[in-house]
Amino acid sequence: MMKNFIVIFFVLFFCAVSAFAQGMDGAPVVFSDEQPDVIQSDEISGEEQEYDEFSDEDFIQDFEEFNTVSEEETVRSVRSHVGSLPHRIFEMGFSFDVDFSNNYFNANDFLVKDLVIDLRKMAKDMPKEGFKLNMNMTPDFFLNLNLKNGVHVGLNFGVESYGNFTISKDLFDFLGYGNDLNEKITLDGKMNGDAFMFVDCAVGFDLFGFHLELIPAVYLPFIHATAENLHGSFVNDENGGLRANASADIVMYTFTDMQPFFDGDVDVNQVVEAMKDGWGFDIESSLEHKIFNTLDGAVYSRIPIVPGQLNYSTKMTMTASMEVDELKNMFEDGDDGLQKDFDVSDKEYSTASYNLHRPMRMGAQVAWRPFGKWCTFGGLLGFGVKQPFTSDAYGYPEYTLSIDIDLFIKNWNMLGLRLSSAYLDEVFKHNAGFIFNLRAFELNLGVCASGGSFTSSFKGAGAGAYFMVAFGW
Fold first, then answer.
1. Ordered DSSP codes for 378-422
2. What is the pLDDT of residues 79-110, one digit of tens each?
3. Does residue 62 lie in a domain region?
4. pLDDT tens, 379-405?
5. For the domain that residue 94 is a member of, what is the CATH number?
6. Structural domain range at position 186
7. Model's pTM, two decimal places?
8. What is the DSSP secondary structure assignment for residue 70, as one 8-state letter?
């Protein structure tokens, strides 16, 4: 499977490079938002006149040359749409991106005067994969240096985390349609989540009309958590009683021993000492080129090299049970009509050696400006692989469609609006963002509607937000 993904990438890469080369016209800056100076040419006399629409003052020239790359964000957005690109000669800042979603329930179902729960409709409409919850969160601190000759140097430090939980459709079929007397209904589910701390250094430069970005990164996996043998069962009898049981084996691989956390005796020095080991290495890259005057394109990748290592494991069994003689008693008597129990047992702490990569990503991006640099249409098409090079590896597609509209004053993007629709990190997201830029200070704010399915993402099945603040000159 992994070999197929790698073959697909190289085919995509060389096809894209070939296409870019056909349109190569020697443009000195790749993906620049600046339009070329207007050249008025007289073919008979051979005379050429160059027209400069801006002032020659040094201050305005700085704004023109260094504060006109906000549209590149549409193209160079491999890691995040929040915006970690250099908009100034030097800048530093912080960004935060988070979203929570599910693939069925939405806000409209609950924001009503009279709440009606149709269990049969729920069972009928529930996706085949069952009910799924998703979470993604990425805080990020960055430094950037952007020079006139196209050289870009950047430093990023942050945390990348994501997780999901799924319950099989069998549960909702039971709730909607019931079962025969004394018939035992079983269900299963799954849970997994990963979190990484990373530090990367970006180096970019122009070369033969292309712009190449290399971003080597070291990262430390914090945790890899899964639920094994997650099972549940329901039985109803002829008296209208119900018995339900559920159990799951929780396995957590971590960078430090979790026993002190559960015992309430955390040693900070021990945690810091554990962070010295287990670091992994991967490298991101993008190759960008101006295909023609209004269209830029790029291919990008993040390739795992050395896996991070989690040196401790925690295993435990979680069980829950519920029993009621008659269902009506549960509603009439509340807790008095219900017997329930929850327990965490068989805790086991040990050392381990679990290897884990950050997700692999590959794909292509474009930025089209048919009306000028104030309006940019962006697109991304690619795929990702989580837990690559392991038996649990699985791939998923990724895409982004976006439009950026900017208000320029003397070639300086002061206000901006960004709308996008995407499927990233296994979540559908529809974003609306606002950019306010005063050269020395920039603020990006946005919200998103999200969901585990395309349909649910438009119905309020999830929400998210992002912001980015940057300072510099």
1. EEEEEEEEESTTSTT-EEEEEEEEEEEEEEEETTEEEEEEEEEEE
2. 333 333 456 889 999 999 999 998 888 777 76
3. no
4. 999 999 998 998 889 999 999 999 999
5. 2.40.160
6. 1-6+88-472
7. 0.76
8. T
